Amino acid sequence: MKQVIVGHPEGEVQVKRFYMNCPTIVVECPGCGSKLAYDFDEQYLSYPEIGVKEHIGFYCDKCSEADAECVEYTVPVLIKDISVTLEYDPDEVKPEL
Ligand SMILES: [Zn+2]
Questions:
Q1: Alpha-carbon gap, residue 34 to 27, rounded angstroms
Q2: Which end of the chain, C or N, has fewer beta carbons within 10 A?
Q3: Which chain residues have CB less than 5 Å from ligand 1, an ion?
Q4: pLDDT tens across 40-65, in order?
Q5: Rounded-to-integer distance, Cα 85 and Cα 96, Å
Q6: Cβ atoms within 10 A of the Cβ of 49, count?
Q7: Distance between alpha carbon 21 and the CA centroid of its chain, in Å?
């Protein structure tokens, strides 16, 4: 019978490119009001650390076109939890070849 266990890593997760396949973060540009998006399908966290804020970067094309003073912004994102779910079947134990 299959078993499921869930783990919650603590501290820094030793993954250089941690893709999350989760919803996009959308914020409003403080300069022009445009919607700025951070898409976790294409971008990643590098060595995420549980309980630590990471600064996610946004670039505003509209402010860049207008030659504004600031075109790059960040928003702090707290990494609250990362979970890993494993499934296995104890009846599938086999000798290693
Ligand atoms: Zn802008």
A1: 8
A2: C
A3: 29, 31-32, 34, 60, 62-63
A4: 888 999 999 999 999 999 999 999 99
A5: 24
A6: 15
A7: 8
Tokens representing residue 25 in the block: 């973060």
CA atoms within 13 A on the CB side of 34: 16
Both tokens assigned to 18:
């941690």
What is the C-alpha R_g of the chain? 20
What six digits make up the tokens of 71?
Answer: 């075109």
Helices (H), the chain: 61-65
pLDDT tens per residue across span 61-94: 999 999 988 899 999 999 999 999 999 999 999 9
Give yes or no for a contact between 6 and 83, defined as CB atoms under 8 angstroms apart: yes
Largest CA distance in the chain: 66
CA of 93 to the centre of ligand 1 (A): 57
